[in-house]
Amino acid sequence: MSDTIKKVVLAYSGGLDTSVILRWLQDTYHCEVVTFTADLGQGGELEPARQKAEAMGVREIHVEDLRETFVKDYVFPMFRANAVYEGTYLLGTAIARPLIAKRQIEIAVATGADAVAHGATGKGNDQVRFELGYLALKPDIRIIAPWREWDLTSRTRLIEYAEKHQIPVPRDKRGEPPFSQDANLLHISSEGKALEDPWQEPDYDHVLSRMVTPMAAPDRPTEITIDFERGDPVAIDGKTLSPATLLARLNELGGANGVGALDLVENRFVGMKSRGVYETPGGTILLHARRAMESLTLDRGAMHLKDELMPRYAELIYNGFWFSPERAMLQAAIDTASEPVRGTVRLKLYKGNVIVTGRRSPGSLYDEAMVTFEEDSVYDQRDAAGFIRLNALRLRLLARRDRGDE
After folding, report:
1. Which ranges constitute the DSSP H helices of 272-323?
2. Is 403 an annotated catalytic residue?
3. Is 335 tagged catalytic?
4. Is 126 a catalytic residue?
5. Which of 6, 103, 132, 304 has the lowest CB atom count within 10 Å?
6. Is 180 a catalytic residue?
7. C-alpha distances in angstroms, 198 versus 70, 124, 194, 277?
8. Nearest alpha carbon to residue 282 among 54, 79, 23
9. Active-site pick, 114, 180, 335, 346
10. Could you give the dihedral angle defined by the CA atoms of residues 109, 110, 112 and 114, in that order, rounded to the nearest 10 degrees?
11. pLDDT range class, residue 2, cuts 50, 70, 90
12. pTM for this model (two decimals)
């Protein structure tokens, strides 16, 4: 085994798990390890990850700020579909994995590595998402998933291994952590331990880190406007912002008003159910605003077809098929439908609620003269009689048959 792999690119956070993995790869495969650390807006400094990798003898270290790429090329395309998994989950973790996988493969090619490695466990979705991405982009790449190979099957054994190899163990890692978190600019997920019992109410004061609870939010609403062009948000309160800056600002506004907390039991792709608490303040605002903008600018047929396609699109992303041909096909249709989605939406944020208070667009399909209850000269109400009779024709024929009419 040791002489089959010469160099591996590891998705490296600098935390306890991936630091143990780094050393385990060196000891088990006797190979060179290249680390890749992505800034997707998870918060905190990434320089400690570089320093830790250097201290562990890594010569090739890649630390990259991918926040703008993440939002522009992954989050915004997904939001054009209004993608929601199982009716509630805005796919914050799932949408980050294809970008990480893509950069890992690119670094592997650039550095001549023959393998990639990740820190996802054998129970979760992320192992599938990472590896489907790897194999779609480089079919012959070797994949190492330590959690499916090693015997470090408990937190205690992980810490013992770290101490044996002089890997620093943060103080909060020595006891059983109350839950584990994964973060990026779109969301923060909290899962495991104290959250595993779906009947137990989460202690939101300790779980939430990007937002306050609705109960603790201000007693006065915050009013904002969001401008859209070709389906994507481009400005808040008339100020043009880059994709990552705009999403970060929506996180601030939503978080301060208790918007975006979700207590969810979901169906994992691997077959089991899991319970977690997700924080998606900016994404929650964006979903409401986009749908309001679409209600004004999309034709009924296009809008309804998008709603029919959305669950399939969301499932593809959740299951890790971002690089699949069917996702690309759906994306092309969604992007085409999003072309006329432009204009401004006005909203109030209040104690966990996103309230749409107005929308306007230069490409609006809303015709006030057509829908008014007052007298008009553009719609002949007598036309409705023939419309109804034609639509009722098949129902009348069925009724006659079932009654046995001649």
Report:
1. 281-297, 300-319
2. no
3. no
4. yes
5. 304
6. yes
7. 32, 18, 10, 11
8. 79
9. 180
10. -30
11. very low
12. 0.93
